[in-house]
Each structure stands twice: as structure tokens, then as C-alpha cells.
Amino acid sequence: MLGLEQAPTATPAVDVTITPDQPTQQAPPFATPFLDAAPGSSRENPVPSGSSIDVDDMTISINRTIRPADEIVASANPFNPTPQLDNEYLMMSVTLTCNKDSDDVCSIYLSRLTVVGSTGIRREPEVMIAGLPNLLSTQEFFGGAQLDGDIIFEVGQGESDLLVVYEALFGDSVYIALPG
Predict the structure, then answer these.
(1) Cis before residue 68, ω within 30 degrees of 0?
(2) DSSP-derived pairing of the beta strands 105-108 and 163-166
(3) How far is Cα 15 from Cα 9, in angstroms, rounded to an integer?
(4) Any idea what the CATH number is for the domain that residue 123 is in?
(5) Residues whose CB falls within 8 Å of the CB of residue 70, separated by 6 or more in sequence, listed in order
(6) Are 134 and 150 in contact (CB under 8 A)?
(7) What predicted TM-score, i.e. pTM, was given to this entire model?
(8) Handedness of CA 83, 87, 91, 96 (dihedral sign)
(9) Inside any domain, residue 95
(10) What is the number of structural domains in the chain?
């Protein structure tokens, strides 16, 4: 082997075939746990604004928000409470569809819906508001039926990154980003 140089060897080409039952995405090299989780499974990875989500045999859609909604609440009934200092009302319009068979019942409990934002404080729906024509309340509805209604929350003025948190009856909470 003296005086003989070996010719460099070429690296053989790798042929990759992807079949339908193999994943087509690679995880980022520095993946964080919330990136691997399903949308809606955490505050860091909410369902995007404008999307619907299926949970507890219902489809939840957030149609729009109005913020501040102080004048709407005040004009509905002069006895409605005013928001606390440095707070404002948020009105959220939602559509709920029961995805069960027509003889089965879905239930919506307002206590399962909260809003959380940049302050990290969970805020429950305001239940002492009167006079608004389309306020959603805790109720049952049959499979195939759809409920449309508004829910009022008191949030901090300027509070950002608002999310709706729905506490599923069975399973983990679901997080939905609010518009604006």
C-alpha cells in the first residue's frame, strides 16, 4: 500500500420514500413541549382566533368580541353594575352546536367558561347583567341544535393576549384566542 493513494469514496445517496402512514413533518430541532401539543391544549398554544373547536360533544365558535362594551351594558339597564376602576367590559358573541344524536342533550354551563389574559387572572362571566337581548345562560339543548348568544366579562383595560378557557367536563381545559 506504499505509494498508493486510495481514491476518495463518494457518499451513497439516500433514497427516502414517505408513505401515508409515516409523519410528513419533522419536529424543530429545539422543540418545546407546547409546540408538540394540539392547538388549544395550553395558554401558549391556543386555538387561533376565528377557529371553532369540538369539545364535550359541542362545537364552540367565537364569532366576535366588543371591547370596551361598557356603553352597551350601561344602556341595556341603568342598574347594571359599572366595571371596577381600570377595568372594562368585554362582550363575546358565541355559537354552540350540539353534535350528539337528536335525542341526546348537550349542556353549557357558564361557570366552565372564563377569560384569561396578560395579567394571568381568570375572570368569570358577569351574571348580574340585565337587559341585553341575547345573553347566553346555563342551559341544555338537543343534538343538532345551535345556540347563539353573548357573554359579558370584566377585564383589565389594556389587558392583552385574551383567551377563553373552557373547562371540559371530561378531559383537559381548552384555550381559544380572542380577536383583537
Answers:
(1) yes
(2) unpaired
(3) 18
(4) 2.60.40.1240
(5) 82, 83, 88, 89
(6) yes
(7) 0.78
(8) negative
(9) yes
(10) 1
